[in-house]
Each structure stands twice: as structure tokens, then as C-alpha cells.
């Protein structure tokens, strides 16, 4: 199946979704498809992923994440004009705002042969906005679900959360697991030397956007209570300055870094988010053979198999226990790290990721 595909996302900032789309677009192009990437510009406190330019990404004015009636109208017009020019067979929208504007733009064109696919990389049902704003978004998603041919979700829990709010019909849903290439393992001693980490120290790594929903403040809380261990926080975002100012001596703030660097230097991988789909950072850590610790939210439990490749946590007490257990038990670290590596290989390979998208697109086109 060779088709013309347009991917629309609010912004292509450094992070897991950029990696998702990069892998997907490159794979779809290898299969002979004509693929376009449309996105707004990143916010002032973020960095655009270099792969946006490499993929030939096209900026759409006003499409970036902050909600603004004027900018949203501008984005709608600019996106609509671009879609007329491209005339896609399939439009695949990603994230909430781009999903709203992108699907409305397709609807306004009355292109009955264009298949509409939307990907929920997570959801905004809790943790992002106030009650009123969240309720408005849910009502909008209910309407948009009726004009969407296929809904892709990155985990069973995300799917059930959305269905519980009556967003879309279950028959439209397809679960797509991320496709992650194994992280390159670097010399641990060399990476630690570059980061001035003393020999013999246990290092707990954390990687993600430094934003409220990811709860990096919990890492600072843990570091204060566990002064004998090193906590390494990798990432950038609006909380970087405040976190750096509050950090204890056993915290290393790397700024934006690569998965290869942070996971090669770490003994344990940590996730502290209030809301997640399937966490790409943990899957990358798993591919590097690290045991995992993460909050039992969203679809995290589809990556962390509790007490097999890591521990699911729900409060400060369970986080402290899990870290101390793995930090003091080398056998458990090795056993769970090996299990995590198998999870990454068996469940999150690139081939299954591309094949699932092909199936979803074929289903969407068949519905027209």
C-alpha cells in the first residue's frame, strides 16, 4: 500500500513523541509512501528536535500548543490551505490541539476519500488542565471521535480511560506499541567520568521534559531523603531553573541529553509522572538493561511488570522502598535489568510498530 500521508502535531519538541514520529515517518518513506510532517513552532522554553528539519518538516503558523483563539483560527486557515495543496490519502493527527484543528480542517474540505486517523500519545483527562477546561476538551473529543476513522492509542489503559468518557467507538480503536531501537550502550566509566560521578556510587536516572505533569520535584524529594545515592535528571523545560536552584548536592542536572548517555551512566531508571501513556524513556532504559521504577499511572504497567522487570509505585513510601531495594541488591538489579531488556526486545520492536500503523491505515481507508 503506497499512499500520501500527512502527520500533524502541535510542535516537534525534543522528547518521546518526536522519536515516535521520526521512526514512523522514516519507516513509511522506506516503504515508498509520500509522507509530510506539519507542526507549529516550539515554545520559548523548549527546543525543537533537530530531526524536524531532517524530515523536511513544514511549520504551520499558530499551530503550537498554547491555546489562543486568534492563533488557532490562523492555524486552521494555514493548515487547511496546506492540505488542499498536498491532497493526502490519510491525515494522522497527534496530540490534543493538532488533533482538534487538523480534524476540523479535513472536515471543512469535505474530502470524503481522505482517511482520518488520530493518535492519543496519552490523554488530557487529568493532570493537565482545570476541571472546566478538561470537561470542554472531553466534549470536543466526543464530537471529533465521530469524524475519526481510526483512533490509535499507545496502551490499553489509555484506551479504557477514553472509552469511559465515551470518546469514540471501541471498534475504531487500535493499540499501537512504540517502536524503539535499542539504546547504544556507552562506556559507563567514561560517561560517569565526564559527569564527575564518583566510582562505586549508585545512580538513579530520570529523563523527560521538566514540566509539572512529569513531577521532577519528586526526584528532588527522593534525593533529599537518600543522600548516599546520585540522582541524575536529564531534560529541559520550564522547571529547569527552579529545580537547579533547589537541587541537593547528590543531584546532577544534565540539561538535555541523549538516552545513550543518561542510561549508560545509570544503575536504575526512574519515572515520576502524574500521567503517562507508554513511557518511551523507560522503554529506552529497558533496552539498555536497566531495572525500572515508575508510577502506576496510564499505561506504565504495560511496560513495568511489577516485581519482574521493576517496581510500580504509588507514593513516596513505595518509591523509597523500590530504590533502596534495587540499590542494595545487585542480584535483583541484574535479574530485573535482564527482564527489562527482554521486554524491550519482545514488545517494542520497530517492525511491530510499523506493521500496526499499516494495518490501521488500511482499515481507515477501507472505511471510506
Gyration radius over CA:
21 Å
What is the annotated CATH architecture of the largest domain?
Answer: 3-Layer(aba) Sandwich
Largest sheet, strands/sense/barrel? 7 strands, parallel
Alpha plus pi helix count: 14
Binned strand content: 15-25%
CATH names the topology of the largest domain as Rossmann fold
Relevant CATH superfamily of the largest domain: Glycogen Phosphorylase B
Going by helix content, strand content and strand pairing, the class is: alpha/beta
Shape: globular
Q: Can you write the helix and strand succession as a string? A: EHEHEHEHEHEHEHEHEHEHEHEEHHH
Arithmetic mean pLDDT: 93
* Spans where pLDDT lies below 50 across 5 or more residues: none
Characterization of this structure:
The protein is of the alpha/beta class. The protein folds into two domains: 4-179 and 349-366, Glycogen Phosphorylase B (Rossmann fold, 3-Layer(aba) Sandwich), CATH 3.40.50.2000; 188-347, Glycogen Phosphorylase B (Rossmann fold, 3-Layer(aba) Sandwich). The chain is 44% helix and 17% strand. It contains 14 helices and 13 strands. Strands 3-2-1-4-5-6-7 form a seven-stranded parallel sheet, with helices on both faces. α3 crosses α4 (96-109), α4 (96-109) packs parallel to α5 and α11 packs across α13. The protein is globular and about 65 Å long. It starts with a strand and ends with a helix. The mean pLDDT is 93.
List keywords for this structure.
368 residues; alpha/beta; Rossmann fold; seven-stranded parallel β-sheet; six-stranded parallel β-sheet; 13 strands
